[in-house]
Amino acid sequence: MSSYKDKKVISIGIVSELTGISQRKIRYYEERGLIFPERSNKGIRKYSFQDVETLMKIAEKMEEGVQTAEIRNDMQRRKIRDEMIRGQLNAHFRFRNSDK
Amino acid sequence: MSSYKDKKVISIGIVSELTGISQRKIRYYEERGLIFPERSNKGIRKYSFQDVETLMKIAEKMEEGVQTAEIRNDMQRRKIRDEMIRGQLNAHFRFRNSDK
DNA sequence: CGTGTAAGGAATTCTGACACG
DNA sequence: CGTGTAAGGAATTCTGACACG
Asked: Quick one: which of A87, B10, B60, B64 has the most CB atoms within 10 Å?
């Protein structure tokens, strides 16, 4: 299911250009647990297009005055809810379609 | 029609890791007109996932002993052929579907 | 022709900290 | 809390060239 969208290959400078968000902010949002870039051997951050999209949504929330803690909680709740829905669907269909 | 696949956002080091092709070779294939990365303001090369795929195909050809000039000609011919086919289709359907 | 490598410089990224508020 | 910035160092990339074949 993973595609180009999820490959972590973009450096922070490009992400900053793509989103218009400063590198300082991008690193800070990571520190607050909103995004999770990978790292190269030497510690260079690598982001996916999915991360870029997430950052755009985060930026919107921030402009609305939402705090990082709240954004994180919202994302976490949404994630759990989606996982439960997927679980229900899988139970219903008895894994007719592969889950992997 | 452009998507993540065509966005030029990957630096040469990552492309090298993704493809297993040395940076020297990647730059050389550009010099020979096989790939066309974009450049940042300061001259840093940026590649797309499409470029990565193209490079994998180039690597196969090279292993078969095909020369860069021949690979370039093949790609050029294929491109022209595809453009002609698209032209015919567009004429036939009278641009029923938008061309943009 | 295709590719490795050393060379020197420029551009990028990283972290921890101080500042402001 | 969220973000800018200067600081020093490490990692990345660039070009032109020499080498081999």
From this structure: B10
